[in-house]
């Protein structure tokens, strides 16, 4: 690279796709919702390595074994809903209601067949998560990690 | 003039000089200049003393300079890098400004902690416990069936060694 201007232009050229990507994300409105379905039981002491980032969060829930059963992301525009199938014939529906300061307001509904199990309104920090646990599954329980982030 | 030309070329030039008075004059002028310079250098060069120049050079080399001068000299390439280096540095800064915050956020998670607020809960007959994990500030909503409703209290307790999540 002989000339500074050439070097700078080359660098900016490499940056262009990065900026395009970020602009593309900005253009997509709504919230990216991500759920993780974790199976907790006392059958053994196995801890799924995929849950390493959540280890501190899960420690307080006194089960011996944790396994990630499912992970799914969906982008939902504001005031619409996204549905996630949960093992055991359950359905989790999440609606981003709006933004309040640094939080994202969500309406969360969990049903099993026609039977509602939970209806809640929560506010999450952007990129934060909340855990919903308790629904029985096989010889353990399910823990749902719900997180939301805006572009 | 100095016999450096190849024989054939030298003979051609000699033949040309025999016929061209202008070139003969130019050749004579160059020969006179060369002779004059040679004579002058031989006459005056011996009188020039390089001793003082040599001594001054050694003095400057061995001169004790303040450490700040030496540091400044060592840092000179850093302070005044080549323009390409400046451009690359500027590009690196631009990259960090554009990508850095997002990258940091991805690595470190939520910017202002993981606090969540629960505005309302309807659990349709199930009992519900709401608590927060202290270290990561994670909020947990825990559902469990009412023991009185279906009489499976013992089964529920058997599922978790500590009766479900600690509060």
What does this structure look like?
The complex is a heterodimer of chains A (151) and B (167). In chain A, 19% of the residues lie in helices and 52% in strands. Chain A is built from 2 helices and 8 strands. With 167 residues, chain B is an alpha+beta fold. Chain B is built from 7 helices and 3 strands, in the order αααααβββαα. Chain B has a two-stranded antiparallel ribbon. In chain B, helix 1 crosses helix 2 (21-45). The longest helix of chain B has 26 residues, at 83-108. The interface between A and B is large, with 52 and 51 residues.
Q: What is the typical, i.e. mean, pLDDT of chain B?
A: 75
- Which two chains touch over the largest interface? A-B, 52 and 51 residues
Rg of chain B, rounded, reads 47 Å
* Unreliable sequence segments of chain B: 149-167
Class computed from helices, strands and strand pairing of chain B? alpha+beta
Radius of gyration of chain A: 20 Å
Q: What is the percent of helical residues of chain A?
A: 10-25%
Biggest sheet layout of chain A: 4 strands, antiparallel
Chain oligomer state? heterodimer
Structural class of chain A: alpha+beta
Described by strand count, sense and barrel closure, the largest sheet of chain B is: 2 strands, antiparallel
E-strand count of chain B: 3
> What's the helix-strand series of chain A?
HEHEEEEEEE
How many helical stretches of chain A?
A: 2
Give the overall shape of chain A, derived from the CA principal axes: globular
Succession of helices and strands of chain B: HHHHHEEEHH
Mean pLDDT of chain A: 85
Beta-sheet strand percentage of chain B?
5-15%
Short description:
The complex is a heterodimer of chains A (151) and B (167). Chain A has helices at residues 4-27, 55-59; strands spanning 31-41, 65-76, 82-86, 90-100, 103-112, 115-125, 129-137, 140-149.
Could you outline the blueprint of secondary structure elements for this entry?
The complex is a heterodimer of chains A (151) and B (167).
Chain A: H1 4-27, E1 31-41, H2 55-59, E2 65-76, E3 82-86, E4 90-100, E5 103-112, E6 115-125, E7 129-137, E8 140-149
Antiparallel strand pairs in A: 1-2, 1-8, 3-4, 4-5, 5-6, 7-8
Chain B: H1 7-19, H2 21-45, H3 51-62, H4 67-79, H5 83-108, E1 116-122, E2 127-133, E3 138-144, H6 147-150, H7 153-159
Antiparallel strand pairs in B: 2-3
